[in-house]
Structure formats: structure tokens, C-alpha cells
Amino acid sequence: MRVAVLKGGISSEREVSLVSGAACAKALRASGYDVVEIDVTRDLWNQLVQASPDVIFNALHGDWGEDGRVQGVLDMYGKPYTHSGVMASALAMDKHRAKHVLRAVGITVADGGLFDRVETAKSHPIPVPYVVKPNGQGSSKSVYIIHDEKTNLSSAIAEDKEMGESVIVEAYIPGRELTVAVMDDRALAVTEIIPQTDWYDYEAKYSDGGSVHVVPADIPAEVEALCKKWAVEAHKALGCRGLSRADFRFNEKNTDLTDIANKIVMLEVNTQPGMTPMSLAPEQAAYVGIDFEQLCRWLVEDATWPR
Question: Do the record's keywords include Manganese (predicted)?
Fold first, then answer.
């Protein structure tokens, strides 16, 4: 079976995707697949025609790679592919709309809304502290935390055109960083991410020593159970397929809240989690006895068309 591994691409997360794709290609070759690696360009259709794969393994990250556009090309191409399809990919990447879906199924998400970027830079749109971030990107790029009314990031936000014209502004959620990977309808584990920087930013995610992963997280059993439950519910509600990862904040210090569901906030769902042996989702798979080669093989076996 010939597997085309899509990697690289044209998003701001290109470098991360190149690493994911190379790791997946190596694992699939070790499993006996005929693997062709495609550094994706806007000419993806012709790249696929030239490669002539039986299955397409999507190892792209970021906008264009996981926002439904590439998935649309794959649907048109008509061969089985991994991870989520067009609708789930587009919905999960649109954080504002995804939050409406998550809230509708009973998952706690941060309060906030969609605002014009330039207007947001002029005055505080919601009470401090809050977070300003792109509505359709990942990897914690172009994320600004306004801690108090004296924090002045107005010029940086106004000039950061990569964020897009509309941005998410939502209440800052303090607490511990937790994440749960889901394979189909199975939550694997809960990992606590301990950033070695001020918060879990791009550097903490992708630099050596930028963060420490604790799996399983040292948290109360009821917190673990609810995070797993919500991760699976989010996966299903958004229509995800294959592998996804849900990120949370757990504010255990908030003694004003007695209901555990109000101490846990889902931040977002990632339909194309990082795919190196040391990435969060593969780490959780390894914890439950699924090594990296087995995980990549499962994703190929799970691939279908259409998604």
C-alpha cells in the first residue's frame, strides 16, 4: 500500500509540520508501507496525481492544512485520508463557532467573543484580565495576554495583521494546563503541561525544554474523568475523526467554585495534533500501550473517504 504523507505546507506552522511528517513517514516505512512524502504547495492536486497514493496521511498543521481547505482537495481527489474531514476541520479551527457548539453540549468554555482587531487595540473590549488571539490559527502564535488595565499591547495587536481582521477576545483562565487525546471515541489519558516560560506559548510548545509533560496528570479522579468525558464529547460534537486533542485549564485554587465543572474550562480542540514520538498525543498513546509506529498504522487503517 502506498501512503502519501502530507507535510510542511504554507502555514505559519510549516516547520512543525515538517518534523511531524518526517516522523510519521519513518514510522510507516518501519511498518512496511510504501511511503512518499509530499511537501505540500498550492499545487497539491498535481502533487497527489504524481504520487498516486492509496491512502493519504495528513501531517499538516495550522491554517490551510487543518482548516478544511486541504480536506476539500482530498475529498475531491477521492482516496481515503486520515484525521478529520472538511466540516469538522473548518469548525474546530474557527474557535468562535466551535465554542458555541461546545457550550451547547454542556462543556464549559471561556466567556468572550469575536471582535475587530483594530478596534480591540483602541480600548479594553471586556474586563481584564483577558486574552486576544487569532480566531483561526494554532500553536499559540500571536497570542496576547492583557493582565491589567496598565498592560499596553495596543500597537502590537493593531499591527499584527497575521491575526486576521477579527480576533477572539476571551476571559483569561488561570490554572493548570491539561490536555486529553482522543482516538475515535476513546480518551487516552490526561497530561499536565508545565511550561518553563510564563505560559504555554509557542516557545514552550516547540523548544527543547520549553515544557514538562506529566502523564498521567496528578489530579483528582473526578477532574480526570470529566476532562476525558468532555474531550470525547467535543470530538463527537464537532464531527472529528481519527485523532484529536482537547486542551483545558483547571483552576483548582478558585475556592469560590464548589462545582468541579466550573473549575475546568476547555480552551480548544485540535484536529491535527503534533505527531512526533514526544508530542502530547503520541505520549498518551504510549502511556496506554500504543507505540508511535502502532499509532501511525492505526491512523492509516482508520482512513476513509469521504470523511
Answer: yes
Residue 148 is given by DSSP the state S
Q: Does 152 belong to an annotated binding site?
A: no
Complete domains list, the chain, with CATH = 2-82 (3.40.50.20), 92-109+174-271 (3.30.470.20), 112-171 (3.30.1490)
pLDDT at 161: 87
Nearest to 262 by CA among 106, 47, 149: 106
Q: Which residues pair with 2 in a beta bridge?
A: 34
Q: For residue range 134-146, list pLDDT tens digits in order.
A: 998 765 578 899 9
Cell readout for 168 is 477572539
Residue of 246, 231, 238, 130 lying closest to 179 (CA atoms):
246
- For residue range 244-273, list pLDDT tens digits in order: 999 999 998 765 556 777 789 999 999 999
Q: Which residue has the cell 464549559?
A: 108
Are 247 and 179 in contact, with CB atoms under 8 Å apart?
yes
295: CB partners within 8 A, 6+ apart = 27, 243, 281, 282, 285
Q: What is the DSSP letter of 81?
A: B
> What's residue 202's pLDDT?
47
Q: What is the pLDDT of residue 255?
A: 59
Cα torsion angle, 192, 193, 199, 202, sign? negative
Residue 15 annotated as binding site: no
Active-site residue list: 13, 139, 279
Identify any residues that bridge with 4 across adjacent strands, giving them in sequence order. 36, 56
pLDDT at 70: 97
Low-confidence residues of the chain, pLDDT below 70?
138-140, 197-210, 254-258
